[in-house]
Specification:
Helix 3 crosses helix 8. By secondary structure, this protein is of the alpha/beta class. It is built from 8 helices and 14 strands. The strands form 4 sheets. Strands 3-2-1-4-7 form a 5-stranded mixed sheet. A 5-stranded mixed sheet has the order 10-9-8-13-14. Strands 5-6 form a two-stranded antiparallel sheet. The protein binds beta-D-glucopyranose (BGC). The site of beta-D-glucopyranose has 16 residues, from helix 3. It comes from Corynebacterium striatum.
Length: about 250
């Protein structure tokens, strides 16, 4: 096994479609070597997912601490929700679970919280400034509340009711794909969601991450609320980088 290098850590991002892991250089926020991605098992049960996490760590020959994200509320290392993964995650003690599969120390945290932390460390200055709502648009909508770069963990804005449905059921990028929406149609829905968040939380800025933020040049100019909205800088690296940061800091929300 490779020994852990100073300033290096390892992050694993568990998503609805893939489980991705990479060694991260925490001085730069860059991956060291290739990212390894394995498809999320159809039945994304805790055991099936934990096995793949262990496989990624083994294949990458990593022996130091590991950070693991889940698309769930994770409070004191207990998984409390499971909106886009198998429902059997609810109530799981993440430390007990992963300890059966990993030999090293690890921390588990919400995926959007991890991505928000990475953006604070390696993204645009705006992420470290005043009050920011960071959103990831993917299978669901994840959120991280940031105040002067500090995280208020486990906010779940994707599940806020906007009109008569949850925000993520109207404006996630998965919904855009599923319903075959054009950018214009989809951003109209996103604007409605952002306007509601703006009305209730009045942040200084929103930052939008998730895969679709890579296409910002196609739809960014259609976003129309009063608060500034910026695309995330880390794009799809954010979850893994944030997880790796959390592992190094032994952050256990
Ligand atoms: C989950 C959040 C997660 C988000 C993005 C939501 O459905 O409830 O915990 O951060 O999806 O994956």
């Amino acid at each position: 096994m490779t020994s852990t290098k100073t300033g290096h850590s390892f992050g694993i991002d568990i998503g609805g479609s893939g489980i991705k892991g990479a060694e991260v250089d925490l001085n730069t926020g860059e991956f060291v070597g290739e990212r390894l991605k394995i498809a999320t098992p159809k039945q994304s049960t805790p055991e099936a997912v934990a096995k793949i996490v262990a496989q990624i760590v083994a294949e990458k020959e990593w022996s130091g601490p590991v950070g693991i994200t889940l698309p769930s509320v994770v409070k004191e290392q207990k998984v409390l929700t499971a909106a886009n993964i198998d429902k059997s995650w609810i109530g799981v003690d993440a430390q007990e679970l992963f300890a059966q599969y990993l030999d090293q120390a690890f921390v588990v945290l919400n995926d959007a919280d991890a991505a928000g932390l990475a953006e604070v460390a390696f993204g645009d200055e705006v992420a470290r400034t005043a009050s920011v709502i960071f959103l990831t648009l993917g299978t669901g909508i994840g959120s991280a509340f940031l105040l002067d770069g500090q995280l208020f963990p486990n906010t779940e804005l994707g599940h806020m009711m906007v009109g008569d449905a949850e925000a993520e059921h109207q404006a996630s990028s998965a919904v855009k794909e599923r319903e075959g929406l054009k950018y214009k149609q989809w951003v109209k829905r996103l604007n409605k969601v952002l306007a509601e968040y703006e009305k209730l939380f009045n942040p200084h800025a929103f930052i939008i991450g998730g895969g679709i933020s890579r296409k910002w040049d196609k739809w960014g100019e259609l976003v129309g609320i009063d608060t500034p909205v910026a695309p995330a800088q880390l794009r799809n690296r954010a979850g893994i980088v944030g997880a790796a940061m959390a592992a190094q800091q032994n952050l256990r929300p």
